[in-house]
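In response to the reviewer comment on reproducibility (Comment 2.3), we provide here a single inverse folding case reported in full, input and output, so that an independent group could reproduce the run without further information from us. The structure tokens appear first.
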């Protein structure tokens, strides 16, 4: 395919009327990076508080980069696309150069990029991103569930009114850029097949959110408040969850975690999870 040189590009912030050109670009381009987790691109652009810049050439949309609303000084590139008819590196670099001052104004210091599609990985260095580590996928199949440790906490199904407490807990358990906002949690809760909380005296100590995924389930989030970790709460949530899915006839489960997250990896290993070879590289830029 003939790729035209990038001439006379105009960069503009996203406005609602740009939704259709974005849909067209995402539909026709081979260069699409989408790491939206819970939403499709329309929902995400329309309902989220995103930072989205668009690159235009002679009135035609040829590129875009969209980031999630910053949380505690960090954000992620969630959506990016470049038309097949222009040079991806030039378009991405121009968009990025335009975005950086805006992100700095918003006090963003870290931008994460999960390489879900190989193509964007080829341009990550040119944009000033550095390789961080692998996000590993672990999977388990079977019905063996370790017996719960003594003093198992009470576990109940989460309710909508718990979500703000879950967001606070999540942000205490994870550091930036891995934390979830209340908005993210609402979206996750909306599509969850199971969301449970571990409690003691009505206080929420930990929670999990999982979704149906092909013929199994995916554990999307497991977090225990730092002051309560190492006492069997994560294991209790996980064991209870596996029992719930077993009752529904589901015995396949996957989870993603950082390669360096030894605490979670030991717990998952104890419950029979093993790496399935499907890793996603995590890159980041410091502004
Ligand atoms: C990872 C995390 C959820 C684990 O929760 P936790 O409550 O601290 O974990 P537990 O107390 O249940 O597990 C502690 C130990 O008891 C073991 N254990 C837990 N349940 C058990 C059971 N039923 N039988 C035998 N051993 C068990 C675990 O394997 C672990 O063993 P280790 O000492 O070898 O590490 C928690 O540390 C956390 O929130 N971390 C930050 C957020 C995070 O990383 N989440 C996971 C990302 S995917």
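Designed residues, in position order:
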């Amino acid at each position: 395919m003939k790729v035209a040189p990038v001439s006379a590009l105009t960069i503009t912030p996203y406005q609602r009327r740009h939704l259709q050109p974005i849909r067209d670009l995402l539909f026709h381009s081979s260069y699409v990076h989408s790491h939206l987790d819970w939403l499709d691109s329309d929902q995400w652009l329309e309902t989220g508080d995103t930072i989205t810049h668009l690159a235009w050439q002679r009135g035609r949309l040829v590129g875009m980069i969209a980031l999630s609303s910053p949380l505690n000084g960090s954000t992620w590139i969630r959506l990016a696309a470049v038309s097949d008819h222009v040079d991806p590196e030039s378009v991405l670099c121009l968009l990025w150069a335009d975005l950086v001052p805006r992100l700095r104004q918003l006090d963003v210091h870290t931008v994460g990029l999960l390489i879900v599609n190989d193509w964007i990985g080829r341009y990550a260095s040119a944009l000033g991103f550095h390789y961080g580590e692998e996000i590993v996928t672990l999977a388990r199949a079977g019905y063996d569930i370790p017996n719960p440790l003594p003093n198992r906490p009470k576990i109940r199904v989460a309710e909508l009114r718990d979500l703000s407490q879950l967001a606070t807990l999540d942000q205490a358990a994870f550091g930036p850029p891995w934390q979830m906002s209340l908005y993210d949690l609402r979206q996750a809760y909306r599509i969850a097949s199971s969301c449970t909380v571990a409690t003691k005296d009505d206080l929420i100590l930990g929670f999990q959110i999982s979704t149906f995924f092909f013929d199994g389930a995916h554990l999307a989030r497991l977090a225990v408040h730092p002051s309560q970790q190492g006492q069997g709460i994560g294991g209790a949530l996980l064991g209870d969850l596996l029992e719930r899915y077993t009752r529904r006839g589901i015995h396949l489960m996957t989870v993603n975690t950082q390669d360096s997250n030894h605490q979670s990896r030991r717990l998952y290993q104890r419950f029979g999870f093993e790496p399935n070879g499907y890793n996603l590289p995590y890159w980041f830029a410091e502004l």
